[in-house]
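We examine the record.

___
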Amino acid sequence: MLCLSFTPLLALVLGASLGTAFPQDALKKSCSLSKYQFLVPHELKAVQKMKKQFEDIMLLSDRKCNTRLFHRKWNTAELPVPDRVMLVEAELDLATAMLGLPTAPKFAETRQRPLAFLTQAREDLRGCMAMEAPSHQPSGKLRHWLQKLQTAKKTETVGCLEATTILHLFQVLNDLRCTALREQCT
């Protein structure tokens, strides 16, 4: 009888000992972007709804925008993984900044879900960058694109950057997916 009651007690003590030997923070510090490999349909629908609403608003306005920020001669899959992470982080920084701008109340409501999703993805990517390649130097392709982004931020109107970003959000999501896959993708 003593042996039966001793076994659960031993399991409890060993479990507690192992818990202190491997702190919970150590488990949280792994870099996993796997949740972005297959984007959840309701997140995609929220982005589609916002993009459609924005396109309808744009039809009523006279926004002229000639920036070709998201038109690249190379594909994200051609970049090494650390470059992909840097690219997507920059894209997500721009997207969250543009979705966070003041706007009409109805459109602001439509933006909330995509903004929350993209903000979370950006934070997850930042955690991975800090762990995997904190001092990575971007390749020539990426460095050129990052310079193009900085120039666009200085020379383009906020409305132009907002329009370009929202209209290319599915490209940003595809780049995120490609980065999460960590292998060649299309």
Summary: The chain has eight helices and no strands. Residues 1-29 have pLDDT under 50 and may be disordered. The CA atoms of residues 102 and 108 lie 7 Å apart. The helical segments are 2-21, 24-28, 41-60, 81-99, 105-132, 140-155, 158-167, 169-181.
